[in-house]
Amino acid sequence: MTEVPNPLSEREQEILNLVATGATNQQIAHELCISINTVKVHLRNVFSKLEVESRTEATMWAVQQGLVVVSNHRQEAADHLQPDEDTDIPVESPAPLPKLPLPLWKRIFFITSAAALFTLALLPPLLHSSSWKATSTPNVFTDQDISKEDNSLAPTSRWSSRARMLSPRARLAAAAFDGWVYTIGGDTGDGVSSEVEAYDPHSNTWQLGRPKPTAVSNIGAVTVGNLIYVPGGILSNGQVTDALEAYAPTGDEWITLSSLPRPVCAYAIATMEGKVYLFGGWDGESYLDAVHIYDTATDTWSAGTPMPTPRAFAGAAALRDRIYVIGGYDEKQEFAVCQEYNPHWEGGNRSPWRERRSMSLPRGGLAVATVGDSVFAIGGGWQNYLAYNERYDPRSDTWFSFESPIIGQWRNLGLTAIDVSLYAIGGWSGEYLNTNEEYQALYRIILPMRHP
After folding, report:
1. Alpha-carbon Rg of the chain, whole angstroms?
2. Is 388 buried (19+), middle (13-18) or exposed (0-12) by CB count in 10 A?
3. 115 sits in which H/E element
């Protein structure tokens, strides 16, 4: 069988090596000087990356790939590994493992079994969980009339549940203004919404704003100056609109601005230097590679250099002088691509687009935002089982996994950043959600000052 590249990080490989010895979660935590919860999070990531369900299958995969040598393991350890072991039995310290070689016949049987299980692990993500399956949606632009699926809340360290949004919604827009989070429009079980809800993180409370004049779903929003801009979207009659409406939180008012050059929905949206950038999307007939640029100072639209990959349901966010357009979906596949866009190179001799390292997993319907020097990609899961989110460091062109409060699928949610926190709100995970999950992306340390 042809070897596949090792998808595990160095830490995940360390943990898998200890799992292969038969070590418990507590023993692994003791050995690596980390918490048991951190071990569990890493194991969940390992299972997802290897497309396996248990410690036994993960060990067999590692043996088949030559990443673990079975001859020096505890005798018959693989025969006694417990699926998804999660014991909390206290131990003083891990005892040294006796180095008794496995009999030759057992090694042959073990390797043969590993090869068979590894082949099974390459089957579709249905094997990840008997209670989860990817949804085949008759209309990818609405989740109405889809049967409820099981979604699991995973215990995490940096996530905390906050006051829930007043109405469950997906395919909504979210933006921050003056320390508040605003959620606008979206899809509900009763149809397309025009609702505006405002969340105050300090009081952990929600309140209603003036409804959007045009109810739409499959939208995004960005804040520029004193306005939150919401372009396009799908109307309640299923048609795609070219309307651009902006909300003024200080006066709780809506204004209508210049229409888009074409109707578009399910785009990725970002802002930089007073301009609004729309990437891709769907115009009612086809998936787009178009880039639409709106100048908030002149209320005019212009065209940018098309994206390398046409798609909708991608995410975008600006960091320094670049915009990163990530993931997406086009009814045929989810995308893992990460493409960097430099607005300052528009109209020049060089392309403003550059391919960067792709995510570890394809994600359609994800949400993207930046905190500090990192780009955070949260959710997705149209065709794939997702057990973690991903963070991108543009300086090293590297992706890192981090825990998720909702696993399986979590798509078309709202996401925005305030200070060092991300707020992931609503979305779809077998049902319309009104969840409001805060992720502390950075820790701020305050040092006392000595006065002379």
Report:
1. 24
2. buried
3. helix 104-121
b/e code 354-369 from CB counts within 10 Å (16+ = b) = eebeebbbbbbbbbbb
Label residue 3 by pLDDT band (50, 70, 90): low
Share of the chain above pLDDT 70, in %: 79
Q: Which of 233, 322, 375, 38 is nearest to 46 (CA)?
A: 38
Q: Which residues, 6 or more positions from 243, have their beta carbon under 8 angstroms from its beta carbon?
A: 214, 216, 231, 232, 233, 256, 259, 260
User: What's the pTM?
Assistant: 0.71
Q: Quick check: 414 and 367 in contact, CB under 8 A?
A: yes
CB 355 within 8 A of CB 308: yes
Per residue in 49-74, pLDDT tens?
887 778 877 877 777 777 765 443 33
Q: Domains of the chain (ranges plus CATH)?
A: 10-123 (1.10.10.10), 152-440 (2.120.10.80)
Q: Which residue has the tokens 């699991």?
A: 152
Token pair for residue 261? 């050059």
Cα separation, 145 vs 435, whole angstroms? 20
Spatial separation of the C-alpha atoms in residues 112 and 78, rounded to whole Å: 13
Q: How large is the average pLDDT for residues 133-146?
A: 65
Instruction: Pick the range with the lowest mean pLDDT from 72-76, 230-234, 395-399.
Output: 72-76
Structure tokens at 218: 């499959």
Q: Which of 199, 162, 167 is nearest to 180 (CA)?
A: 199
Work out the number of other CB atoms within 10 angstroms of the CB of residue 301.
20
d(C-alpha 167, C-alpha 332), whole Å: 31
Neighbours of 125 (CB within 10 A): 18
Is the pLDDT at 84 greater than 80? The verdict is no
- Going by pLDDT thresholds of 50, 70 and 90, the confidence category of residue 199 is very high
Q: Is 28 helix (H, G, I), strand (E, B) or coil?
A: helix
Q: Which is nearest to 402 in space by CA: 23, 42, 30, 34?
A: 42
Per the CB < 8 A criterion, the answer to whether 255 and 114 are in contact is no
Q: Which residues make beta-bridge pairs with 234?
A: 217, 240
| Helices 10-20 & 55-64 angle (0-180, nearest 10) | 110
Tokens 């009659």 belong to 237
Q: Which residue, chain included where needed, has tokens 């693989």? A: 78
